[in-house]
Amino acid sequence: NMLGSWKNRYCTLAFARNQFTLDYFVGDNKAEKKGTFNIPRKSGFAKAPDSGDIKNCFSIEVGASESRKAGTKVTFSAPTKEAFAMWENAFLTAKPHSEALVVVGSSGLVGSATLKALSAHANTFTIKAGVRDVKSPKNASFAAPGVHVVAADMSKPKDLAGSLVGAKCAFVVVPGTADRTQLGINGVRACKEAGVKHIVLLSVTVVAKPDTLFGAQFIPIEQAVKTCGIPYTIVRLPMFYENVLGQTASIISSGKFYSALEDNGHNAISVADIGAAVAKIMTRCDSFKNKILNLTGSKLVKEKDFADGLTKSCGFKVEYVAVSYMDQKESMMAMGMPEWQVDGVTELQKLIADKDALFTNVASDLPALLGRELATPATMCEFAGAAIKAQKEAAEFAAKAEAERVAAELAALKLAAKNGDKEAIAKIAAMEKEKKDKAAAELLAKQIAATKQTINNGGLVLKKFGDEAAYRPRFVWIDDDKKELCWSKTETKDGSFKSIKLATSTVISEPKADGAKPATMLVKAEADGFTFNVDSKSDKTVDLKIEGTKELAEAWIHALHVICGHPKPAAPAAAGAGAAAGLVGAAAGAAGAAASGMSMPGASSLAPKAPTAAGVASSMGAPRVPSATSAAKSVL
Length: 636
Description:
This protein is α/β, with parallel strands linked by helices.
């Protein structure tokens, strides 16, 4: 009712830019548009008196137009009470369509931390978690009020662009794959195609060194962002505190974690702080237009800081064990990390050992950005310690329960054996054999550990070079930087030495048994052992004899294959039997990994795959420990 008479009109209502737009048509359909009312957010919606048979009336105040002053009231009648309620609800509760913030690569450490921080802004923005596989249970778990999981595969840039349409800001988290450079560029191009208003790019501090593996990968991606024509922010990241948690299983089982960082301080940072910082940039991206930020730590941290923090928070002694680059590489590759990625990590660690300014500079943009103190190794360990302690207690509980079960079973078998039960006698014999085999495996593991120490640090090995007739004890070591097998002319490392190059062309023979030999006037006695030959295929060949078992010789051979760069050398057969205690084993090197944009196959995948507390308990028939497992899930 506009001019004193009621007209039956088809109407549509929209809300954008903090005002309503009401279009009305000539008749009761959308065939011909009659006019438009622009209505302010405070529409003045009010229930109006019924007009005879015309009920469910309401009035609104329309904006100024050629024929009306601002605030002119127009009356409407909804056809039903339900329709009236819908119009009332629309006018009183309408909210504008929020702008989208998209994290492309939400499933990694940095992406998920950023997503968690962004969820606090879900009332202001539409948050999108971009993942490659939306059907994955892990990825599906990102969905929450105001957070939507969308397909975002950088290997499919056209599809990716569809998920980015309408985004105010997109955070491109480059994955840790060999083709990451092209994928990162694909992500930038998809943002441009979709009309994204601002790009935040994850990069690495080592991008300042073009001759490094990771630096060379990220330089073209940064260049793509800088030249795409869209406002951008580049965040360059160092190593992460959380890498040490990739070795949680080793910490629980042996109280140790490993890396080649030794006692070198570096400007690592917490992933949680990175997530909070990126979220702040994305929600206020206009303030960070075309900036490059170094989000490093404000203090240098050492591996000992994590050992001390975990010792305090876990309630048991945790030690850091330094290992060689060679042993670290061997372990990482054995756990499935590609060689290029392992070499990239080692480059970073060597820069840290050289005290390169990229890793020792603590002039970070992060404290000012967050406006608070940064997390420390102690606070990170305090956060994680409760879960680690709970898992250890659960594992000990399960082990104790299993030991009690075995003891009870053995007692029952012995009682049956006394009565001549042949099956019980056979089972006791099998259990004793299993116990003996386990003890032998543990002894072998210790021997392999000692051999690995010799490989890492050098030690006495029987050596025969060229046309020498007999083996002689010499100090032998592997120089993994120069890729050389070296031996001194004496039984110590002092003085001059010789070496043989270790390259892909080097041939290493299989071990052969070699019996003990008595001493002579010129040569010392030899114990039983295994010999193998290292042939450079150029001008030198050397034979080594490793006293002891075949597995000890295989440990040497495996290490040499790794240094030579031979494709996927098989790990020593016994290394998995009990090597988790004291060896680099499966856990080595995880703490040294630079998670900064690397997205390793999960830092946790480098740690020994120990079963969860609940899994151990249930598989052995022992009672479950719900308090421990729930604590582990809630904290970790």
